[in-house]
Design brief:
The complex is a heterodimer of chains A (about 220) and B (about 180). Chain A contains six helices and nine strands; from the N terminus they run βαβαβαβαβαβαβββ. By secondary structure, chain A is of the alpha/beta class. Chain A has two domains: about 120 residues, 3-Layer(aba) Sandwich (Rossmann fold), CATH 3.40.50; about 100 residues, putative n-type atp pyrophosphatase, domain 2, CATH 3.90.1490.10. In chain A, β1, α1 and β2 form a beta-alpha-beta unit. The longest helix of chain A has 19 residues. Chain A is globular. Chain A starts with a strand and ends with a strand. Chain B is an alpha/beta fold and about 180 residues long. Helix content of chain B is about 20%, strand content about 35%. Chain B has a nine-stranded mixed β-sheet with strand order 2-1-3-4-9-8-7-5-6. Classes of the chains: A alpha/beta (about 220), B alpha/beta (about 180). At the A-B interface, α4 and β5 of A face α1, α2, β5 and α4 of B.
Chain lengths: ~220, ~180
């Protein structure tokens, strides 16, 4: 029988691919999202919470949402809270995360899961960057860049979709950046993927400087696929 | 041909604990076969064996320990990672004790081997069981805070690692693959 799990979800490519992989073997009972104060958080990605709510609706999966300060103590406390709720409400036995390379993140996720008696699954852990990026495009994900945070990634990339061409461009920049964005070089948002029953449409504007820019989302809606 | 043995109950865990090891084997240009702990294993067909780790809550492989007894007669190289360290220790009469370690720790390498030189190395640990000391035929090659982090089977190129080399110490796996057992 499939295990009941929750997924640590930030709305970007990593947590969506982890969710997609987990859905093939596990029963996804809920998503859990912890929103940090800013992009400075070491433990969590900085998600656009309103969008995460739309993504949960598009997926038809319940969402447990909490917020925290950027410091480690507050982040860990919030993670305990959301996971305890997931156990209580949805009887989950495991957690799926989108951790890729950070031993800081993985260590904390593993310790918290152990304390709460939960299995911890990290299907993207140590994944080869080329395999990872190609899998996103091959699996039919529609992903846009929501932030670039340093040379040589330019402002023009913000709002642009992940395509074969973009993946090859990122892999070609290996000398300067981690192509999968693991070092915070860029952030992404998933607008559609095979598990979405409806897709997300956003209206946005781009702000910031040449190599440090983000999108400001003005409107979001769910549309038929 | 390298035999890679998965000790994972769930395929989702294999993406975490087995696939990164397979990526290193592929990068080295070597052929491999993947088998699961619950299958009958014929080790003699392979030049080397790597037994990968699994999730912290996964002990299902312990129900199939008999499948690994053939390793005591095997002459080729063995690399036992976490669950593999547990299994290799058990079949050689060394019973790991419950000692949980999660995170990055410094390993003191007390004796050089084909895998790693004497000195210090940071390694990523994720285990519930470890050996406090080892008895023959095992000898300790590396220590971390009072537990055996690396051991060797005397007279053979067979090693147990209490940490996950595929995370911070990929060269250990490459050295194991490149080293001749003869």
């Amino acid at each position: 029988m499939a295990m009941n799990v929750c997924v640590l979800y930030s709305g970007g490519k990593d947590s969506n691919l982890a969710l997609y992989k987990a859905s093939k073997e596990m029963k996804i009972k809920c998503l859990v999202t912890v929103k940090p104060e800013s992009e400075e958080s070491w433990l969590f990605h900085y998600p656009a919470v309103d969008i995460v709510k739309y993504q949960a609706k598009a997926l038809g999966i319940p969402l447990i949402l909490d917020s925290c300060r950027d410091d480690e103590e507050s982040s860990i406390k919030a993670l305990y809270n959301v996971l305890e709720k997931a156990i209580e409400i949805y009887s989950v036995d495991g957690v799926v995360t989108g951790a890729v390379k950070s031993t800081y993140q993985a260590t904390r996720f593993q310790r918290i899961c152990w304390d709460l008696g939960l299995w911890c699954f990290n299907p993207l852990w140590q994944i080869n960057e080329s395999k990872f990026l190609h899998e996103i495009v091959n699996s039919g994900f529609e992903v846009i860049f929501t932030r670039v945070a340093g040379y040589p990634l330019k402002k023009e990339l913000v709002g642009r979709k992940f395509t074969w061409e973009v993946v090859e461009m990122l892999l070609g920049l290996k000398e300067y950046i981690n192509p999968s964005g693991e070092g915070g070089e860029y952030e992404t948002l998933v607008l559609d993927m095979p598990m979405f029953h409806r897709k997300i449409e956003v209206e946005y504007e781009v702000y910031g400087s040449d190599y440090d820019a983000s999108i400001r989302i003005n409107d979001v809606r769910l549309i038929e696929k | 041909m390298i035999l890679v043995v998965s000790t994972c109950k769930y395929r989702l865990s294999e993406e975490e604990f087995v696939d990164p090891v397979i990526d290193i084997i592929r990068e080295a240009g070597l052929d491999y076969t993947l088998k699961r702990y619950s299958e009958k294993l014929n080790f003699t067909r392979y030049t080397k064996v790597i037994i990968c780790g699994t999730a912290l809550k996964d002990f299902d492989y312990m129900n199939y320990i008999d499948n690994f007894l053939g390793l005591t007669r095997y002459r080729g190289g063995i690399l036992g990672i976490c669950a593999g360290y547990h299994i290799l220790g058990l079949i050689h009469g060394n019973n790991p004790l419950e000692m949980r370690r999660i995170g990055v720790y410094k390993v003191k390498v007390v004796a050089s081997s084909p895998l790693i030189d004497r000195g210090e190395a940071k390694a990523y640990f994720l285990h519930n069981y470890a050996l406090k000391n080892v008895e023959k035929p095992l000898i300790a090659l590396g220590l971390v805070n009072g537990e055996v982090a690396i051991y060797k089977v005397m007279g053979k190129n067979q090693f147990g690692l209490a940490f996950h080399p595929e995370v911070l110490n990929k060269s250990i796996i490459r050295n194991f693959l490149n080293h001749s057992d003869k």
